[in-house]
Amino acid sequence: MTATYNANGENGDAGSTEGELNAWKHRAPYRVHDKAENFKARYEGSCHCGKVRYELSREKPLDAKYCHCTTCQKIHGAPFQWAAIFHKDDINFTHGHHDLGWYESSEKTCVHKLPCKVSCAYCRTPIMDEGRNMILLFPTLIDFKTPEDRKNFEVSCHMFYPRRILDIPDGKPKWSGINNDSDLIEDSPQEAVNELKRKRQEEGDKNDDKKS
């Protein structure tokens, strides 16, 4: 008996690239018809079953972080999420454009509504979080050829650290929420704490000048 699955949720026909519901297939980061002849692949990644495969052109992500929020814990079934930020043009899907599924967590719908979570519709491996301008890829899907490649994805900080399942005393900055928009806590490097205080003091002084 052949297994069946619902690709693309409620937003797009699995075998079609026509119509408004399939418009996403013609835009980054998907671009079904883009042969990417000028795309220089630096890394390759795939889901567990191999139906979805992609390439990355950028040597290092714009940033990489560990997120300890409860949403990431539940969706990944793991203590935290390891995410690397890329531009949408940095990725090229070589297989599986029609084998993607969506999940929009705020409304809990399976439509391609940004921001949304993208996964393989067959094996359910999380592929990435797609934002309005960027994508957050999960480096555990990437086939790193060398230790140097792996080091390129070293994280810069932890987010939502108070919600952690386990302690990670790695000396990285640890934010109470979103990095730069919350407080540094626990064993965050003192120089990072001091820099944050300096920046916030400068911002406070500027606001005071505007009011006076």
Task: Outline the structure in words.
Strands 6-7-8-9-4-3-10 form a seven-stranded mixed β-sheet. It has a three-stranded antiparallel β-sheet with strand order 1-2-5, with no helix packed on it. It has 212 residues and is an alpha+beta fold. The protein contains three helices and ten strands; from the N terminus they run βββαββββββαβα.
Mind describing the biggest β-sheet?
7 strands, mixed
Task: Enumerate how many helices there are, as a single number.
Answer: 3
Mean pLDDT equals 87
**Terminal-residue CA separation:** 75 Å
- Strand line-up across the major sheet: 6-7-8-9-4-3-10
The H-and-E topology, N to C, reads as EEEHEEEEEEHEH
How much of the polypeptide forms β-strand, as a percent range? 15-25%
Secondary structural class: alpha+beta
- Rg over alpha carbons: 20 Å
Unreliable spans are: 1-5
**Approximately how much helix is present in the residues?**
10-25%
Number of strands: 10
Shape: globular
